[in-house]
Design a protein that fits this description.
The chain is mainly beta. It has two helices and 20 strands. Strands 1-5-6-8-9-12-13-16-17-18-19-20 form a twelve-stranded antiparallel beta barrel. It is elongated. 42% of the residues are buried.
């Protein structure tokens, strides 16, 4: 069998990364699971007309560190959660455990145009404490769950330069539709302060869907630096113009009507780094990248009167990929080095309302909610490429 060129190995690696690196909730900041963000799957640079690729990805994270802005609320880990049987005070931090599996499909319409579809399934757990009324009593920690198919996505990608000749670099643009296939109204039983149990609406952070139909624009680019070393970058922005999805977070407050309803927020992602094949057969590759992902306080289009926890994380991502024949395997671990829960539109509206009745500017209040973030996530992927009715060929260079 002929040796595969190093640029082909790199493309296999980087599109394994695109295939695997879907965006999921990073905790209470609901940057949620959305299928097909990087559906240019492994080796898809050579995905010719009539060729298929199918795959699956699994992702896990645990969020538990609370932040207001960039300042961690460390006391949430040790206080406010009652006491254990030894009288030691417990924390009241919200913990989210998220498991997500994507089912991916890609098809080459031509050598330069590719259509992609992804359907995600999620299982999310939110562990929290019961806020007891006075007199103060030990709080009860309990868990609620939301699971099911999340928001699916269909996209079309186009390579600006012919992959048959553009061996050292290329640029791809993509346009996709995010569907509202995931439920945004999941409910579960939760204990109440009066000792009863009641079915309640799950928090926005663990709902499978956001209730909106969105449009996502994508960009991917790579360039050979030297030998088997390549640079790459990719990113997307989801435009989610629907103002809110109609599900209620809490009872409305006078003067802040509308901010008690969950939003259908925009979200964004960007990533850039280096990758190289390291073994003699050039089947195994490693990468190092920086990335940022989050949701803005205000959408680019549509109304803004709704509730969200906006913020972002900046991460260092370590990547590993292996391909053999038609099979591709990957592992990516982004470690969050910056966590920032920014001020939301609801925070600003509440702040303005309170300050409107304060006559002394020195006594103005600042309102900014908190959110829990994960330290890292684990992303594992597999894909298989095939062609119906004809034998696949490996192009040599």
């Amino acid at each position: 069998m002929k040796k595969i060129s190093s640029y082909t190995v790199f493309i296999a690696f980087i599109f394994i990364a695109f295939h695997t690196q879907k965006i999921a909730a990073q905790g209470c900041v609901a940057v949620r699971q959305m299928g097909g963000l990087y559906m240019n799957s492994a080796s898809s640079y050579n995905l010719g007309k009539g060729e298929f690729q199918v795959g699956t990805n699994y992702r896990y994270f645990h969020s538990w560190r609370h932040f207001v802005g960039k300042e961690e609320q460390r006391e949430r880990q040790t206080t406010g959660g009652g006491h254990d049987e030894n009288g030691v005070e417990r924390g009241n931090a919200v913990n989210i455990y998220s498991h997500a599996v994507d089912f991916n499909f890609s098809y080459g319409i031509t050598d330069r145009i590719q259509i992609n579809a992804t359907l995600p399934y999620v299982h999310n757990e939110r562990s929290q404490v019961l806020r007891q009324a006075t007199p103060v009593k030990d709080t009860l920690r309990y868990s609620v769950y939301a699971q099911g198919f999340a928001d699916a996505r269909v996209s079309v990608n186009y390579w600006f330069f012919d992959p048959k000749t553009a061996h050292k670099g290329n640029l791809m643009l993509g346009l996709g539709v995010k569907l509202n296939t995931g439920s945004h109204t999941k409910m579960d039983d939760a204990p109440q302060t009066d000792g009863t149990t009641k079915s309640v609406m799950m928090d926005q952070a663990i709902q499978p869907g956001d209730g909106g139909i969105g449009i996502a624009a994508e960009l991917q680019v790579f360039r050979q630096i030297t030998g088997r070393l390549y640079g790459f970058a990719n990113g997307y922005y989801l435009f989610n113009p629907k103002e809110s999805n109609g599900s209620f977070k809490s009872p409305p407050k006078e003067g802040l009507e509308g901010y008690e309803i969950y939003a259908c927020p925009d979200q964004y992602f960007a990533r850039a780094g280096l990758s190289a094949a390291v073994d003699k057969k050039e089947n195994f590759s490693v990468s190092l990248a920086g990335r940022i992902e989050g949701i803005p306080a205000y959408d680019a289009f549509g109304g803004q009167v709704a509730y969200r926890r906006p913020g972002y994380v900046i991460a260092i991502e370590y990547g590993f990929a292996y391909h053999i024949g038609k099979h591709n395997f990957s592992l990516f671990i982004p470690y969050n080095i910056v966590k920032n829960r920014i001020q939301s539109a609801a925070d600003i509206a509440s702040q303005n309302l309170q300050n409107s009745v304060i006559t002394d500017p020195s006594k103005y209040v600042h309102v900014q909610g908190d959110a829990a973030f994960a330290d890292y996530s684990v992303n594992v992927g597999y894909s298989y490429r095939f062609s119906l009715g004809k034998k696949m060929k490996v192009t040599m260079h």
